Amino acid sequence: MTAAHRRRLGARHLILVALLALLGSAGAFAAVTGSASAHPSPSPRVTDPTDSHAHGGPSPADFADIRRARPDARPPLNQPSASTGTFTARCGRNENGHRNPDNFIVTPGVRNGAHHLHDYVGNLSTDAFSTDDSLRAAGTTCARGDKSAYFWPVLRLTGTEPGPEGNDDGGNSGRVLTPDSVALTFRGSPTAKVTAMPEGLRAITGDAKAFTNGAGGANGSKDAKDARARWSCTGFADRHLTDKYPLCPRGSSVVRLLDFPSCWDGRHTDSAGHRTHLVFPDAATGRCGRGFTPVPQLRMELTYSVPRGPSFAVDSFPEQLRKPVTDHADFADAMPAGLMATVVRCVNEGRRCG
Hints:
The chain has helices at residues 3-33, 52-55, 132-137, 337-348; strands at residues 63-65, 86-89, 99-100, 118-122, 149-153, 155-157, 175-177, 181-187, 202-206, 230-233, 245-247, 254-259, 263-264, 278-279, 293-294, 297-304, 312-314, 328-332, 352-353. The chain has 2 domains: 1-41, no CATH class; 59-353, no CATH class. By secondary structure, the protein is of the alpha+beta class. Helix content is 15%, strand content 21%.
């Protein structure tokens, strides 16, 4: 081999070494800067159906065994003047799949104003643009001509493929569950007779933003005053959870219990914030405050069949991470006056009607 040939081989070797060094530097640069173009890292593997990175929450810590929950506090005792009857509105369980991410009470006229999907029963037209007039003109799934709007966030199976409704942009993924049963019951007061709700009354219960408002949020607060929704399992009617989803024993279904405020100011059908015209009675006595009168209290009880384990979550705003404490529901009264009169009579006379 001639000297010239050896020099050419040496030069090629130096060029190869330089190229390898340059590629090594690029890899190091990518490692430092996180550049996806240099060495893309593999997608994270989801091993838990409630992994917050994949679904925006919840976490396994948001679930608790219902058998370990403390018994509920005793309700106020009925006084001689109590109204002890009930009226059950029979409206189905949303078998027709009426759902949208609107809320005409809180964000009227805004499409996707809720940023999470609602189940509706009752009025067939309910959407972002609903008004008293449009509700009055529409059809209903309820018996006896009740055109009221009843709605709540859907419950989904986490870690599953969505159905026709799809996922949404708030991190709410999974297949939507239709409730096994929906009980809409109007109840009385432990201290007084009730009066009729005014047509067009708006009511909300629970706090859709309870997590960032303090219930389990960064400030460590254990509750939020408007977080009213409760969770349980069939067979455990004496115990409920507010800030945990229930883990039910075999053969038991998940229960969502949503009680609405029932003390009306006697003048307004809605208010700023939607909470001051219709308020809750005193928790200890069941009595309405001064200037308020009791109206029939709506209770929604929703049951679901779910796989055992932490496999489900309620839809929520993105920043609420699908926490159970954010569960809530809405109601707009559009009952015919005659039907509302029947509700009041049944409740005040201690009868069971529906």
